[in-house]
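Sample intake sheet
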Amino acid sequence: MEKRILVLGGTGMLGAPVARNLKQQGFQVRIMTRNKEKAQKLFDDSFEIVTGDVTDANDTEKALNGCYGVHINLQPSIELSVAENILNVASRLGLQRITYLSGATTFIKNPKIPLAKQKLKVEKLIKESGIPYTFFCPTGAMENILSMIRGNRANVIGKKPVYVHWFAAEDLGRMVAKSYTTEKAANKKLCIHGPEKLSSREALQRYCSEIHPEIKNLGSIPFWLAKIIGVMAKNESLKNDVPVMVHFAKKGEPGDPTEANNILGAPAITLDEWIKQRKAKLSTATA
C-alpha cells in the first residue's frame, strides 16, 4: 500500500505544490483544511481531503491516523501548538516522518528576529521527538511578488535593496517530495536558494514589465511604515516579514544551499521562466 502523507497548509501557495509533487512521487496525499470547497477546486479526486481545524487536537489526530508522514506549512502563530498536538500522538499513531517549512533566518546565530525565535522552538520540539525530520529554510518565494502589487500600484518594502535568491514554489514542492524518497534527507536542516540573486525591486520590475506593463514606476514603503501597516491591518505575514527583510538588507541572505542542492537537486526555475509560466496561465484563464 502506498505511504500516505498528511499536508497541513496544503491549499496555500507553498503547500499546494508540495501536495502535487508528493502525488507525482507516488504517495497518497491527504489534505486537511477548513475550506473543503477551496481544496476541491485545487485538487482532483485522487487527493484525499478531510475537513478539520489544524489547531484542534482531536481533528489533527483523526487526520494523522494511517499517515506515514506529515508536512507542516502553517502560519507562525499556530505552528508550535500544532506541532505539540502532532507529537503528542505521533508515537501511538506510528508517524515516521516530519517535514517542516522553517525559515532562512533560523541559520542566524542568536537571532533576535521574532519569527526566527518562533521557528527555532518548533524545530527543537520536532528534533527532541526522535522522529526523522527535514527542515526546509527558503528565502524569497517568487509567488510573494504578487503581494507587492495592489491595483495599478507596485511597491517594494524598504529603500535599501533587499537581495535574495528567488525560488519558485514548484521547485520547493519538488524538493520536499523528494526528501521522502531518500534517507540522505533525514534529520537535515536544508537552506533553499533559487538560481538567481536579485533585489526585490529588480524582481518586481521584471514581473511588471511582462504582466503589468501599465505600471511604469515602482514605489517603496519604508520598513518602519510597513511594520506599522502590518500591525494595524493585523497582517501576520507582513508583520513577520519586515524584520527578516531588515536583516537581509543589513547583513545579507543567510544559509548555504550546497547540501540541499546535492541531496535534492537545486531549484532550476528562473524568475523569467516563472513569469513566462504565469503569463501563460493568466492568458488561459482569460481566454
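Comment: The chain has a mean pLDDT of 94. The chain has eleven helices and twelve strands.
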